[in-house]
Amino acid sequence: MSHSGGREPAVSLGLLDATMVGIGAMIGAGIFVLTGLAVDISGPAAIIAFALNGGVTTFTALSYAELAAAIPRNGGGYAYVREVFSAPVAFVMGWTRWFTYMIAGSLYALGFASNFVEFGHIYGYALPGPPVLYALGAVVTLVALNALSTEASGRGETAITLLKIAILGVFVAFGLTAADAGEFDPLFTEGPLSVLPAMGLTFIAFQGYDLIATVTEEVENPQVNIPRAILLSVAVTVVVYLLVVFVAIGTLGADGLAGAGETAIAQAAEGFMPTFPILGTGAALIAFGAVFSTVSALNAVVIGSSRVAFAMGRERQLPARLGRFHHRYGTPLVAILASAVVMLVAVLVVPIRIVGNLASLFSLLGFIIVNYALIRLRRRQPNLQRPFEVPLYPVTPVLGIVCNVLLGLFIDWFTWALAIGWLVVGGGVYLLLSRRGDVGPVGPPEIQEPEPIESTEGAND
After folding, report:
1. 355 vs 346: CA distance, rounded Å
2. Domains in the chain, start-ordered, CATH in brackets?
3. What is the C-alpha to C-alpha distance for residues 419 and 425, in angstroms, rounded to an integer?
């Protein structure tokens, strides 16, 4: 595989590191702040909404797993769409995925800031300066780490994610002894259909496994480890979510959680968790976990957004300098910095709630296209080597398309209007770059078998 200048990507991430990129992105602040809001919509049936979202997510995750094994290239969904669609369609996919990851980064940065300030308040410290300064500092710190070393950022992601899983494990371990299953009877206090809007609200918490595919070329034995990492990250996340939601409802009750809103998990913890040395109350432990959750989620999208920009630069759908690895650091330095600029601007000026909805919509649209790309690739290249294959094809990707379309219908019209506006902006950028000669031809790409990537011996051990 040829790269436009610079050095080859360093193969420095193992199966555990790749899996933690996905888990780190999915188990972010969402589980801490969305549980109470979901219960407010659907009562105890919120646990059904989380379970169904896990099923919907799995359909598309399986498609990502097959495509990642068959097309082991950085860029994730963009790389797969580029393989089977014309360049303009691929540009739209890359443009929206890059935007989604960058905006998610600003959301996580602001989430980190609010949780960090709250953590200080728990111990009686009034941290100086506005929270936005801490958000900017988090972005700058993680961008610098990613710019200097993929291995360091990957290892850091692994450590932080394992820590927050351990914190949630403590919450669940104490909570299971105190939870009352009677809190789920009756289950549908707000009616069975109330599960659907709760699914729309919480679906964003299941996004992130696709980030694993954006670093394919930097993972050992990617054709085996990337599919494993995708499916492992989804499985672990779904199990953690269901256990946390069960404990939260079973201990605080649906009415209590609904009243607690965004602090529901922390308030539930206060009711049954003991006081811990150094950290203090259960609420303090949850706040500590929320801080680490947002840090790991932010790091994951810094990794993912830069790899999408890198892939688009390498395919000459964005300026070529984005598609190069730095000769010294072995990281896509220019792509990382370009992504960081948008994140920093979004932290300062973008209305986060609106653009958060926009990011969710673009994710749903991207997942629809990826599922269709799997179907189209199967038809166009039936003999392509596929180390992993989606079970029950074509039922699985078709269900992925249908479910994502249905969830998209629950997103408000204003968000759809903004999405169309952003696509128009992307079209203008593409035409401008085309006229300047900064991007490649607009015709369909030549379909070729992807070149195998050298793996580290013993990666499967």
Report:
1. 9
2. 15-436 (1.20.1740.10)
3. 10
